Amino acid sequence: NAGVTQTPKFRVLKTGQSMTLLCAQDMNHEYMYWYRQDPGMGLRLIHYSVGEGTTAKGEVPDGYNVSRLKKQNFLLGLESAAPSQTSVYFCASRLVGSNQPQHFGDGTRLSIL
Amino acid sequence: KNEVEQSPQNLTAQEGEFITINCSYSVGISALHWLQQHPGGGIVSLFMLSSGKKKHGRLIATINIQEKHSSLHITASHPRDSAVYICAVRNTGNQFYFGTGTSLTVIP
Hints:
The structure holds 2 protein chains of 2 kinds.
Chain A: E1 4-7, E2 10-13, E3 19-25, E4 31-37, E5 44-51, E6 54-57, E7 65-67, E8 73-78, E9 87-94, E10 103-104, E11 108-112
Chain B: E1 4-7, E2 10-14, E3 19-25, E4 31-37, E5 43-49, E6 52-56, E7 59-64, E8 69-74, E9 83-90, E10 96-98, E11 102-107
Parallel strand pairs in B: 2-11
Antiparallel strand pairs in B: 1-3, 3-8, 4-5, 4-9, 6-7, 7-8, 9-10, 9-11
């Protein structure tokens, strides 16, 4: 039982390049989330999903797209990377229910040059 | 706008001291979470509260819904407690809002 696994752990991109971050969970969780963490700021929600085939925008969705084709995977895409997207990205998942905690991945450190 | 405010931002304590970290929030919530972020970056959920008080080992979390305030207490602090502690609230939808964290250093 690996929990929440994020791939890759580190990546350096040039401005304008595209890439996809993968989040995989093996706990059969319905809800999945993508956050970014920047110095001096709390985690901010980019997009989230309440189930396979559904996604919704969070607090800072611009410049990102997501897909949840399979229940266990939640992909975060950057179509044209910008330096402002340099951040640490965290994925989280949880079961349905108001008393369920989030389980976090170890994060992906992304630098855009 | 900061839906969740934590204090203090930084805290240094001697081993064995009693520690309190505070969290105030401004939105209606269905639950409040306390998270621990290790120096390596991983985030672990410590507590989830919707009322009252919870205890796990040396950690105690309380919440006052009327005052929109929560506290995390660490008794008999230890250097291994050194981490960033994050308060997060879940609103009545499915979104979470996070505080900026309290960086705790416990000195032997």
